[in-house]
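Hello, quick one for you while I still have it in my head. No rush at all, and the record is pasted right below.
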Amino acid sequence: MESGELASGRPLVQLLTMQPTELGFVEVQAIIHDSNGQPVTYFSFSFLGQGNHCKAYKGYFDGEEAAFKIFNEEAAEDMENECDVLHQLQAAQARSRDQTTPSCCIVTSVGKKFETRPKACELQLLLGVLKAAHKAGFVHRDPLPRNYLRVPGGTVLFNDWGSAENIRKGNPVMPVGWPAEQAEEMIPQTAVDCSACIVCGRLCSNHRQQPVVPQFRHDLEMFAKSIFLKLVYIASKAEQSFGIWSDHPDALAWQPVLAAARELPDFQAHQHDPEIFVEGYEAIYKKFEETLLQHYKS
């Protein structure tokens, strides 16, 4: 069986022992049929962790280590988003929604978290993943250190595409994955279509008329902020950034990187195709990468 057959998304995954009450156990098994109908069995042997609507296990698939990510019914849309992005980035091996139980799964390569600081070439690879997602029309919404993974073979990936926003829809919403203080600092109130508060006379978050719209540049800016935090803080504090951009002396030196991210204009779904948009602003993506690497090495 060729890997290309799995990457195509044609295989149908049938979950054999998947019931909502059993998700906490390691004994999860799946049979994946290739395009010729030949079964390949997947067994998980360790529990990796869980999010709000999914659990992840590590095991063997077709003789290689793989991650087995299982979503519950509430996260069906998140699962579909994640599948769509992973397939467009050619990062997923198989996926399915089981027709008989409120569960679904994705099989991907097993990655390791960045315990040591990323190399410059790894940052370039991560930015390449983000840009590829942007061309496909997706905003990651949560490119923080916890979602950087080293994958065997010298590859790096972003994890957790479940909450990725398809900006092609034209009406993205505030990402639930972003820490509140990051989102508030990142997206100015003036960027929100809302009316002024009749009490304070300013653009007040309590009186927003429309949801905050994440943009491709917010991915870049969040990525830049998270890399800085990873350099300044230990990993356990990497996402506790409240007040750092106004209080930390080293944050001023990182402002050119943030400014380079902010040069990317808004994407308008009714005016642009994502791929054409990204290609049209290739110079800005390149400038952001060069500025980031320049300050990263200094």
Residues 216-232 form the longest helix (17 residues).
